[in-house]
């Protein structure tokens, strides 16, 4: 028996071009299953993402979430399949197309402009869609996938309404969008870093560490007297990158041990002025909750900290608080009391976000 006799199928015997289409609002494992099922049966698969802003706006509004723009849905799917070269993610403009029987002809024409090669097979679940597609595309097959939702019994609307109930179904790249973001902030020695880590551990999720804490050690020979404006910009940029990584690994909620407002506060302290570029990184809309820690726990000098005098600690705290308020941060909760009280208050407040 030759090696060839053991081959059950040759790639070139598979249909050349397949298409899966949808809104993917958001993409979930049912979609993934349909796409991968299709991808094992064709040489090249197009995943066609619908761009229909009126429809998408309406659905998101009805389900009480912010609009998920097409650019994000495309990015999520592109990330999901970035290591699978035979899967191409493309966008189809479905704006102003109508919703009647004739709109399927318009849809088909627009699709032919996007997928310029002959489509051998469509993959979908809906019997009516199948009939319409066959009418619009000659010499094209339609394969129905998991019509009864037996494998992943979920749909996007349920996810939009209750993302945390259906968390396990949401594809990884889409999860940061639904993740609740909690900023833990405060002046020096307020127990911020320990609280951030404790919260992340108790919620079984990720956290983003404060870059500034290690910056002088890593880049300035440990001497904070050598800071320049450039260092504050780099710190802010590194922080954004670290936040991004933390969000990609988050489990429903993510904790951030600082933000660009706090870096700006340190620019004021060390450099004596605000930094324009750091300011441009400040984003009040990023966070669902801000836990602002009061300086009413003991001062712990760790070699990096400056301002141990209690009267000064309180003044600096008020300065920092004002910076958040002036920049429009919402849902700021001041946390005080002993370490145990702080932990429990923070847990309860965070838990409310993912109910
Ligand atoms: N107006 C028109 O004439 C016309 C014509 C054709 C297509 N369209 C567009 O096509 C899109 C179809 O959207 P949709 O609502 O089916 O998209 P969707 O994002 O909900 O689903 C995408 C694909 O995944 C499949 N799927 C969904 N949940 C699944 C699960 N749990 N398990 C397995 N597979 C699952 C769907 O059947 C579909 O084939 C719409 O945007 C619509 O506007 C419009």
UniProtKB/TrEMBL annotation:
Residue positions binding NAD(+): 28, 94-107, 152-154
Cited SUPFAM superfamilies: Nucleotidylyl transferase, P-loop containing nucleoside triphosphate hydrolases
EC number from the UniProt entry: 2.7.1.22, 2.7.7.1
InterPro entries: NAD_biosynth-regulator (IPR052735), NAD_NadR (IPR016429), NadR/Ttd14_AAA_dom (IPR038727), P-loop_NTPase (IPR027417), Rossmann-like_a/b/a_fold (IPR014729)
Example of a GO biological process term: NAD+ biosynthetic process
Keyword presence, Nucleotide-binding: yes
Keywords of this entry: Kinase, Nucleotide-binding, Nucleotidyltransferase, Transferase
UniProt-recorded name of the protein: Multifunctional transcriptional regulator/nicotinamide-nucleotide adenylyltransferase/ribosylnicotinamide kinase NadR
């Amino acid at each position: 028996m030759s090696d060839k006799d053991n081959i059950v199928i040759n790639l070139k015997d598979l249909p050349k071009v397949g298409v899966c289409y949808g809104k993917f609002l958001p993409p979930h494992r049912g979609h993934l299953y349909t796409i991968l099922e299709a991808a094992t049966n064709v040489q090249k698969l197009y995943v066609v993402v619908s761009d229909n802003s009126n429809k998408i706006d309406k659905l998101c509004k009805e389900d009480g979430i912010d609009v998920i723009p097409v650019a994000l849905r495309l990015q999520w799917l592109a990330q999901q399949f970035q290591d699978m070269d035979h899967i191409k993610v493309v966008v189809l403009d479905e704006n102003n197309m109508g919703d009647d029987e004739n709109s399927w002809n318009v849809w088909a024409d627009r699709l032919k402009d996007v997928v310029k090669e002959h489509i051998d097979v469509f993959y979908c679940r809906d019997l009516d869609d199948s009939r319409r597609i066959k009418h619009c595309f000659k010499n094209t097959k339609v394969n129905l996938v998991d019509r009864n939702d037996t494998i992943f019994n979920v749909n996007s609307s349920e996810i939009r309404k209750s993302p945390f109930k259906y968390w396990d179904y949401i594809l990884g790249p889409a999860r940061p969008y639904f993740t609740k973001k909690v900023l833990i902030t405060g002046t020096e020695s307020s127990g911020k870093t320990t609280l951030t880590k404790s919260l992340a551990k108790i919620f079984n999720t990720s956290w983003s560490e404060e870059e500034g804490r290690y910056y002088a050690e890593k880049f300035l020979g440990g001497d904070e007297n050598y800071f320049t404006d450039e260092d504050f910009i780099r710190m802010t940029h590194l922080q954004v990158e670290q936040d991004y990584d933390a969000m990609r690994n988050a489990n429903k909620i993510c904790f951030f041990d600082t933000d660009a407002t706090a870096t700006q506060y340190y620019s004021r302290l060390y450099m004596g002025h605000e930094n324009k570029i750091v300011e441009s990184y400040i984003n009040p809309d990023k966070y669902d909750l801000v836990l602002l820690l009061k300086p009413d726990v003991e001062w712990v000098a760790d070699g990096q900290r400056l301002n141990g005098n209690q009267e000064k600690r309180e003044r600096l705290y008020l300065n920092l608080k004002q910076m958040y308020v002036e920049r429009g941060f919402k849902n700021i909760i001041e946390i005080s009391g002993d370490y145990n009280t702080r932990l429990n208050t923070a847990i309860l407040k965070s838990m409310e976000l993912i109910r």
